[in-house]
Amino acid sequence: MGLLKFKKFIQYHLRHQPVNHPAQEHELGIVRLGYNPIEFKNSLWRVSNSFEVRERIRIAFQGSEYPIFEVRLGSSRESAPRLFILSGIHGNEEGGILAVPVILERLREQPQLVSKVNVRILAPVNPVGAYNHSRYNASGHDINRDFVNFRTPEARLIRLLFDEYKPDFVLSLHEGPQRGTFMFANACVPATMALALVEALQRAHVELAERDYFGRRLDPPGLAVATWPSQALVAAWARYFHMMTVHEYAARRGIPEITLETSWRSGEWYNRILPHVELVLELLKQLGSWVQE
Length: 293
What we know:
By secondary structure, the chain is α/β, with parallel strands linked by helices. The chain has a single domain (33-288), classed as Zn peptidases (Aminopeptidase, 3-Layer(aba) Sandwich). The protein contains ten helices and eight strands. Strands 1-2-4-3-5-8-6-7 form an eight-stranded mixed sheet, sandwiched between helices. Helix 3 (94-109) packs across helix 10 (274-288).
């Protein structure tokens, strides 16, 4: 492991608050896609005649306030499967954030995809980080390590929505340094569903990663599943360092969760945004099949 990788491992996995502000990380080779909070807000309001869009909370930073938006759509039936989508928990992973308006436009064009499923979308989960192109929130915390102690308002909001909404499935939209796209499937995700989602990405001509960003070989390409060693490591991480991701938090609550990781090294819309869109559309089809007519 090179010195930079070692430092980043310590920073990302062993420190609750690596910095004290939404710091940028220029050395990671992240290609910016041009996230603009005003344009993002306007893109959500444009679909508000079809879906319910509102500001859930605002995060204060340096005299300004940055909203986290909640979008509600789909079936209102009590028995409908509930899908909770999280986007932008790391503010510098722009592909997942910018995919949200595209997803909503596609669903407005194809309303049958949400006719059997209820959907909540929270974006950007880290609005201060998104504005500052930073992984970290206003206080320098990595929100996606805060699901043990819940120090951050963003993690507390997600916990609240888990309690209020009671999702049947969670999808987190992320990006990473690997080549190609892959997904983490927690231990609650049915193996047949995980494979079907990977196959959908293949049909959409998404380049699937052969290794994850830890360097582990993926078999099949594009899919990292929970194993006994990985689960034991995550349990120790939570116990001794009091750190946990949404991925594992959902598993602890018995909820299937997939974390999709596109590559932040590409400047192509096709590589950064399309995989998120295609995965959401396929996941809606899969969840819709759970419904008994």
